[in-house]
Design goal:
Shape: elongated
Strand content: under 5%
Order of helices and strands: HHH
Radius of gyration: 20 Å
Number of helices: 3
Oligomer: single chain
Length: about 70
């Protein structure tokens, strides 16, 4: 019984760890400073070389942000 209670409390606490991002807050997440790349020009070049070498194009993730109003 106590294990079930501990699991239920853990689930309740974990559900509060991922807040909902409101549409007007998404512009902050789309800021270029939120990018992991230190040098975006060099990163784009290396990405292009990788695509040419692997013969794979696209499906590499999002290229920026937006308002999320699809």
């Amino acid at each position: 019984m106590s294990r079930l209670l501990v699991v239920a409390i853990a689930l309740l606490l974990a559900s509060g760890c991922s807040p909902w991002v409101k549409p007007y807050e998404r512009e902050n997440l789309a800021d270029p400073i939120m990018s992991f790349d230190r040098d975006p020009i060099a990163s784009n070049y290396l990405h292009h070389v990788y695509e040419a070498r692997e013969a794979a194009r696209g499906a590499d993730g999002a290229s920026g942000g937006g308002c999320g109003c699809n």
